[in-house]
Amino acid sequence: MIKRVVVAGRGSGGFDDTVSPFFGRCSSFCVVDIGSGGIATHLTIPNEASDIPGSAGVVAAGNVIDFGVDAVVAGDFGAGSTKVFQKAGVKQYILKDILIKEAIEKVISGGVECVDSGEIIASQKYGMGRNKRKAPEKSLSGFFICSRCGCSMPKKDGVLEMECPNCGNNMS
């Protein structure tokens, strides 16, 4: 059962805003608590990762996970943010050209299916981003990713987790 959902907003992130076509580069998030009768509370928060030079999706995903969400909605997701959500058990929903309030209603009513995170990761190459660079030789599965700050570090043989060199969070 979904108790808290975050929707990536194109503008202010309010109910009358449109769902952003991009998760990591959205301007704001609408954080919605779901009660037995539907929407219980909501608030909007700016996406502090939207203007960082790289890995905006991974950093934004880490920030969203810190909100304690069960589900996230955007027009599309990159492989980096998807990997973070997959590890945290957060469901992803892709909805395009729709108001945030309508997107929330679809998620609550079950009118939309969550996406298969494996398909998103398989269909995109890590590091492709907006400037379409060539993907690194190693796959995303060869990296530790910090869910708090988005730092990524190459995995070493036999090491299952490590401490993030930036923020001290446990990376897995």
UniProtKB/TrEMBL annotation:
Residues 16-108 form the Dinitrogenase iron-molybdenum cofactor biosynthesis domain. It comes from the Archaea. SUPFAM superfamilies: Nitrogenase accessory factor-like. This is Dinitrogenase iron-molybdenum cofactor biosynthesis domain-containing protein.
